[in-house]
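Handout, tutorial session.
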Amino acid sequence: MRFRMGVIAVFTAATLVVPVTMLEASAAGRAPVSFGRVQYDSPGSDRGSNRSLNAEWIRVTNHSNKVRRLGRWTVRDEANHVYRFPRRFRLRPHRTVQIHTGSGRNTRSDLYWDQGSYVWNNTGDRAILRSRSGARKDVCSWGDGSGSMRC
């Protein structure tokens, strides 16, 4: 979560000016772009079919009121599997994109990593979202659990 320091003036009845430090965050209390949910264990048997691979995914949400350019942003795991967003990908305000492990046709709401094997470890892993400059924007970690979780 990124915070920005600011100063505001508070006026009393006697018009005394008192500086007050405050922390500003997005209205949702989180970064403008962050992970929303992960399905780290594909339901059913892990047989490696494309259908099963695509049932493993992670969601990225734009919580802001403006379009966010995510071209060249990355999502990676602890084993350094790296997904790079398409060069011109834009995420509209208050929208979510789901990044599937397998192959498919990219749309505004679904992107495909084109991996031939599972990325997310069922017994624990960590997803890292980075901007095109490499700045860390969000992290989602999990242990051995139900197979999905909210980040």
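The second record follows below. Compare its token runs with those of the first.
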Amino acid sequence: MAKRFLISDMHFGHSNILNYEKRPFEDVSIMDKAIINNWNSIVKHKDDIVFVLGDVSFYPKEETAKIIGQLRGQKRLILGNHDKGRSVKFWHDVGFKEVYHYPVCVDDFYWLSHEPMYLTSTMPYVNVHGHIHSQVISTDGEVNQYFNVSVERIDYTPIDFEKIKQYYNMEEKI
């Protein structure tokens, strides 16, 4: 059975992100290789689904396609602020099976988005998002309704969706 994974804000080819977010890599090529290797260490099958919650690549089309082609699984992209300058066709051409302009609801409870969505404690949803990199949103409720899957928060490796679901079922704390 196929597994589902989530990741956001890889910023392939973006050398300035190393300083902005204090990423632990000497240069962008080392960062790119580490993210590719980490991805393929956990996404094992071509039928696995990886939701990429935006901000994929700063490279031109050919280099972006080369990187995406190395990543296992069926890739689905929710466009981030750095992705929107390129067409949906561009993202399909480089290897994304699905491309979304807006948040997507998964399993009737988890809203996947690039930027955090507005939620109140009376809303029975969890927002899995990226965009804010190493930051975390805290809420007044007993359970934080936000889960950040920016690479800085998940060790530069896609996270298994089942781990997030377990966290919100309180079976296991991450």
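Points raised in discussion: Helices lie at 17-20, 28-42, 61-70, 88-94, 161-168.
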